[in-house]
Design brief:
- By secondary structure, the protein is of the alpha+beta class.
- The chain has a single domain (about 1-130), classed as Nucleoside diphosphate kinase-like domain (Alpha-Beta Plaits), CATH 3.30.70.141.
- It has helices at about 10-15, 20-30, 45-50, 60-65, 80-90, 100-105, 120-130; strands spanning about 1-10, 30-40, 70-80, 115.
- A four-stranded antiparallel β-sheet has the order 2-3-1-4, with helices on both faces.
């Protein structure tokens, strides 16, 4: 089943020059880039994206991180895209992510973990509308 998902290549990946590496992993798996934008976000945009986490004690440092520099926002499309992206990304904590995943190969952090991918069809729809309202 073809579906769309939303991805953020986070500021740590952009700073480290890993955007091409990350995108090539998605493309090598057969996913198509539908839309992509290199941009920054402010605190209110971060709060809107991470609305379900805003009250968590660990959220303020996440907000500071995601607003710390440029990121790449993208919509990817393909067969079971949401699940496929999450598998390619690996476990949230890069120290525990499996080798062969983006985080397993390239991250040693739980917060600065290179990428975000929608976790459900509902999240993908909400995030795509938030980041790419014209699509």
């Amino acid at each position: 089943m073809s579906q769309r998902t939303f991805v953020i290549i986070k500021p740590d990946a952009v700073r480290r020059g890993l955007v091409g590496e990350v995108l090539s992993r998605y493309e090598a798996k057969g996913l198509t880039i539908v839309a992509m934008e290199h941009r920054t976000i402010d605190a209110s945009q971060a709060d809107e994206h991470y609305a379900e986490h805003v009250e968590q004690p660990w959220y303020p440092p996440l907000r500071d991180f995601v607003t710390s520099g440029p990121l790449v926002a993208a919509i990817l499309e393909g067969d079971e895209a949401i699940e496929v992206v999450r598998l390619i990304n690996g476990a949230t904590d890069g120290r525990k992510a499996a080798p062969g995943t983006i985080r397993g190969d390239l991250s040693l952090s739980n917060r600065e973990n290179l990428v975000h991918g929608s976790d459900s069809p509902e999240s993908a729809e909400r995030e795509i509308k938030l980041w790419f309202p014209s699509l």
